[in-house]
Amino acid sequence: MQLAGRVAHMTGDGSDGWEIYYRARDLKARGVAVVNLTIGEHDIRTDPRILDAMAASARAGNTGYTVGPGKPDLRRAIAERVTARAGVATGPGNVMVTPGGQAALFAAHMVTLDPGDTGLYCDPYYATYPGTIRATGARDVAVPTRPETGFQPEAEAIAARAAGARTLLINTPNNPTGTVYTRRTLEDVARVAADHDLWLISDEVYDTQLWAGEHLSPRALPGMAERTLVVGSLSKSHAMTGSRIGWLIGPEAVIGAVTALATNTTYGLPGYIQDAGLAALSLGAAFEEAVSAPFRRRRDLAVACLASSNRLRLVPSGGAMYVMVDVRATGLSGNRFAERLLEAERIAVMPGESFGQAAAGHVRIALTVDDDALAEALARLAAFAEGLPDAG
Amino acid sequence: MQLAGRVAHMTGDGSDGWEIYYRARDLKARGVAVVNLTIGEHDIRTDPRILDAMAASARAGNTGYTVGPGKPDLRRAIAERVTARAGVATGPGNVMVTPGGQAALFAAHMVTLDPGDTGLYCDPYYATYPGTIRATGARDVAVPTRPETGFQPEAEAIAARAAGARTLLINTPNNPTGTVYTRRTLEDVARVAADHDLWLISDEVYDTQLWAGEHLSPRALPGMAERTLVVGSLSKSHAMTGSRIGWLIGPEAVIGAVTALATNTTYGLPGYIQDAGLAALSLGAAFEEAVSAPFRRRRDLAVACLASSNRLRLVPSGGAMYVMVDVRATGLSGNRFAERLLEAERIAVMPGESFGQAAAGHVRIALTVDDDALAEALARLAAFAEGLPDAG
Hints:
The structure is a homodimer. Chain A is of the alpha/beta class. Chain A has 13 helices and 13 strands.
C-alpha cells in the first residue's frame, strides 16, 4: 500500500543531529550520568497555581467541546498582551488559540501556501520549519544567514530567493542561535516582504527571553500588520511546554481561515487548558520574568566561562534559552565535536548541522540545567576543546 | 493579501444547517427556552475519577513535552482494547495517539492523499469529512447512500467513483443516520477497496454506542488490516469530548508517517491528558456501558414516541447518539421542517441537508437531553408534523 508522496518529504534537511540526543538518552537509560544540554525545555515544571486553575475548571464542568478560535476571555487576554508587548492594536478578532505554537506555525502556512508554492525560512532554523512547509505541499527554500553577521537575516539573500515565494518565516529571539533581530534587520525584512508581496510569518515564542532592550515584533512596523502572522505560545514564557497552548495573531480574514482549517484538523482545544492559559497570563509580567531569569543568568555564565577560550567563540546572544558556540577553530564539524564531547565528557549538545547548513561548525547549548551544573559542564567543554589536537 | 486557494474550499458542501444551531443558541442567549437536539454531546460531564487522575498527573510533574506517537502505557492500553473489541491483533506499534478523533482523521488523509488525488466518503456524512479531504489538497467525492437501503453503502456506488481514488472514508455506527453497517456491507466495502487498491479509513468513534450485536471493524476482515486505518476516540465512549484524545490504528509504516506528520502539526499532546485517557480506559467496559446506556434507552424511547406517526418515519437505528427521521411525508425539506419546528416549538434539530444530499427530507435528532425532556420534545415534534397542512 502506497503512502502519499508528501510523507517522503516531511522531515527536515539537517543532518541527523538528533543522533546525539538519542544516544544521550540511551546512555542515561543505562545508568550513565550524562549532562543533557540538547532540548529546549525548562528545568522547572508548570507552576501549581496554573495547574490548580486547570483542575478547578475541569471539575467545574468545562470538559465539553470548545469550537472556533478560542474562548472569548482568553482571546481577549492574549490580544491585550500582544497589544501591550508589541505596541500594535490587537483585538480578540485577531487571535486564534491553537494547541501549541507548532499548530499555529502549521496553520499559518496552510492558509497561505498552496501545493507547488514556495515558502522561505532562514537557516539555521528550528527543526520543524522545512517539514511544516513541505507538509502543506509547498516547496521549502532556505535563506542562509552567516556567522559573520551574527546570523541576522540579510535583505539581499531573501530577495534573491523571493521570486515565486509567498511566505517568509522568521524567528526572533532565534532558536538555535540566540540572535535577536535588530530593528534594522526587521525593517529590511519588512521591505523585502512588501516588495515581493510575501506573507511574513514571525515566530516569537521566545519573546520573554530577551537579555537586553525590548522585544520588537515586525507586525508593529508601518504597513506590516496586514501581512504579518505572529506565532506565540505559553510554552517558553510560562514553562507550559506540555500543555500545548499557543496562538496565531493576524488580520481577521486570516483568523477566519485558520478557524475553518482547525475544524478539519484539531477541532478546538480543551476548555480547561484554555482556562489554565488564562490563569497563566493573569500571573503577569513578574511571573514571566521569573521564568526567564535563569536563562539570562546562565547566558551571562556562559559568556564568562567561555571568554578565555582560544578555541571556542560564543555567538553574540540576545535571547532564547540557548547559546551557540563556534567550534571551527578546533577543526571539527559541529557533528564531530558533539560526538566526541559526548564520548569523552558525557555532555550532550546539539550539532549546528542539525539546524541546517548555515550553522555548520557550531554547537547549540541549551541552558536548561541548574547554574552549578552548567558552569561545570561549560568548564569541561572548554577544557575538552583546548585539549583537542591542533586543527589542520 | 491573498490566502491559499485551499481556504476557499475548506468548508463542506452541506447546506448551512448550522443556521438552526446558531439560531437556537441565540434564542437561548436571549432567555428563550429551547430544546437543543442539534449537537452530539453528552448531557453528563467527564467523570471526576478521570479528572482526578489528570490533575494528579499534572501535579506530579507531567507537564513537559511528550513527542512521538504517544506514551507507551497508553498506546499499550489502546492496542489491547482494539485487539479485544475488533478481534484483530494490534500492538502498540499500530497505535498513534492524537489530539482527538478529528486530528486522526486529518492525519490519515494527509499521509494517504496527495494534492490532486481523490478521496471518497459516504453521503450523508459528518460535517468535517469533505473539508478534511480538501484540506490535504485532494478532491473530495461523495458516494451517495439511499434511505431505501437504510443508508448502507453499496458496492456499485463506490466502484462507480473509485477510478483515480486512493481513499474511502466510512463511519459505523454512523453519524448522522444511526445506521450500523452490516457484515455484508463491510465485506462489500472491503472487496471494492481491495479491487481498486484504496486505503479504507474507518471512523469508529461511536463503537461503544451499539444497540444490538457486536461492533464489527472492517480492519478485522481478511486481508484488510494492511489497508485499513481506524479512527478512534474517547470523546463519545467516555464523555471526554473536550479533552481531545483519540487515536489512529494502522500498519506500522502508517503510524511512522503520522508520527512524522505530527511533529509538523501538533507536536504531541499533553502528558497529563494521556494519563487521563489511561485512567479512563482502566474504568473498563462497565463504565463505557454506563456512558452509552442513556442513548440506547432514548433510542428505544424515540422508536416508541414516533411509532404511531403517519408523517414521520424513523430510519432504522443500530447505534450512535442520534436518530434520523424521514420527514418527506410532510412535503417539507429537512431544512424547512427544522426551521418551522424551531419557530413553532422551540425545538432545534439538524436538517438532513446539512449532512449532504442523501439525507434530504430528513432531520437528525441528537439524543442528548434527559429522557423526560426528550419524550416531551418528541411528542411535540410528532404533533407538529401531524398538524402541518397536507403535502402538495
